[in-house]
Design a protein that fits this description.
5-stranded antiparallel β-sheet; 21 helices; alpha+beta; 3 domains; 8-stranded mixed β-sheet; globular
């Protein structure tokens, strides 16, 4: 089968995405994605690259947008609402799973409950994985639409039109925390305020490779800092957050009038704005569910004696019995050192070591490795500095004030180092992605979707980032 797959690689064009990701946590999203548009998945340590068939991805992208333009409620009614119903079931399931609960189960009960967990995740990813479909094509689709309809909209206004409509989970946590701080300053806090906050937000630092439970000590430290702020400043921030949705709605309405946008144009820009909010809701659910999945892995490690880290290289469907998992120990060790898999309709084919590297290299060659990198301008501006390649959280300390952050894609855990960066360059992402949104908030030049920046650039390369033209050059 390897020769047939290599032939497939050479004949197709591929879109690459990835980051700091481990197989077990991301298995269901990728499984759904590959069912839609085919592809390969590479892992080495905590580094991941997923490769998708661009032609199939574009076809699905065009079909969704076509349906939305015919019916402006298509995205909300046919995709987001069904996802929300399934997401609710996922959250309800997550709420009942605790370490103590799993410890009390016998093997049969444990396996049955785990099977239910992965089944629920699989169902809601049917809808939300489609968000990624627009990452390679969103900017081009908007540009073509504006050209066809003779719309000349300033970049900063275009960002507002497609920006979020409501607060995202990082902002919600800060708002709720500031309310607690204010009550503490006024002597009106209730004993349950902080425990309820922990229960609601313990997962916010999770990712696709790292899982944490943020406890009272963590949030108390943040609240202490908040309490030290002037009461008027806290009130202003709370007021700003409370009025955010109304402000966004008013600002968008002003731009509709300014550019005399018709219903078709409003539908187009609102579509991408809804994708932005949906992406954040999906991320919150994913991080919550990764914690639940991690509880299963820790208990599985206790029962089998296989190290937790190796278990993150399992496919969830391989957890058929404790004895089966024990037998996979050496295989999991091999996978952790470098592997790639291809998802056939009913089976998964794995390749290790040299075979995996050979296939990854062929896939990357199909993407391209031009010395002059081009991408999408997510936040305008120019900057020069040393490139720092940030692939996992272990790399964060490399980036110093004024360096250029180069990564596959940013996620919430990257926000602290994004504030230090003179500019941001990513391999992947679209106009509704995390890097695009946060870079605009920070006013940092940002180019997304270069596809190969982490391959072409090396640590300490002196580079120029021209986010007015979407070009990155070595100097």
């Amino acid at each position: 089968m390897k020769s047939a797959l290599i032939s497939k690689i050479k004949k197709k064009q591929w879109y690459r995405q990835g980051g700091s990701i481990l197989p077990y946590y991301v298995w269901q999203p990728y499984k759904r994605a590959f069912e839609y548009y085919d592809g390969f998945n590479y892992f080495a340590g905590k580094i991941n690259y997923g490769y998708f068939n661009k032609k199939k991805q574009k076809k699905i992208c065009d079909d969704i947008l076509k349906r939305q333009m015919k019916n402006n409620s298509y995205l909300s009614k046919k995709l987001i609402e069904p996802w929300k119903k399934l997401a609710k079931k996922q959250r309800e399931f997550n709420a009942i799973i605790t370490k103590e609960h799993l410890q009390q189960l016998d093997e049969k009960q444990f396996l049955k409950l785990h099977k239910e967990f992965i089944k629920i995740r699989y169902k809601h990813w049917k809808y939300s994985v489609l968000i990624e479909t627009f990452d390679p094509w969103g900017d081009l689709l908007v540009s073509d639409f504006m050209q066809k309809n003779k719309l000349d909209i300033a970049a900063e206004d275009l960002n507002v039109l497609m920006d979020q409509q409501k607060l995202h989970f990082i902002q919600m946590e800060k708002l709720d925390r500031l309310r607690i701080a204010k009550k503490l300053k006024l002597g009106k806090a209730k004993p349950q305020d902080i425990p309820e906050h922990i229960k609601k937000y313990f997962w916010i630092h999770n990712s696709w490779a790292e899982v944490y439970y943020l406890d009272g000590a963590f949030f108390l430290e943040l609240i202490k800092r908040d309490i030290s702020k002037d009461t008027e400043k806290i009130d202003r921030t709370i007021k700003w957050f409370d009025g955010f949705a109304s402000y966004q709605k008013e600002k968008k309405a002003e731009l509709y009038k300014k550019y005399k946008l018709d219903a078709k144009a409003i539908n187009m820009f609102s579509f991408f704005s809804m994708l932005t909010d949906w992406r954040d809701g999906r991320k919150a659910l994913a991080y919550q569910s990764n914690y639940t999945g991690d509880l299963f892995l820790h208990e599985l490690s206790t029962r089998t004696g296989v190290r937790h880290y190796l278990l993150t290289y399992l496919s969830p469907h391989e957890i058929k019995s404790f004895s089966t998992v024990k037998k996979l120990k050496s295989t999991l060790l091999q996978r952790s050192r470098g592997c790639i898999y291809y998802q056939h309709p009913k089976t998964v084919e794995w390749f290790m070591a040299k075979d995996a590297e050979e296939m990854r290299q062929l896939l990357d060659n199909r993407i391209g490795n031009s010395k002059e990198l081009k991408g999408v301008c997510a936040s305008k501006g120019k900057a020069t500095g040393k490139a720092k390649i940030i692939m996992t959280k272990d790399d964060f300390d490399k980036l110093k004030q004024g360096d250029i952050l180069v990564t596959s894609m940013t996620r919430p855990e990257h926000t602290p180092i994004m504030k230090k960066a003179a500019a941001i360059v990513t391999d992947e992402g679209g106009i509704t992605c995390h890097a695009a949104i946060v870079s605009r908030e920070l006013g940092v030049p940002c180019i997304i979707g270069t596809q190969s920046a982490t391959n072409v650039l090396k640590d300490n390369d002196l580079i120029e980032v021209d986010a007015n033209k979407g070009i990155v050059r070595k100097i």
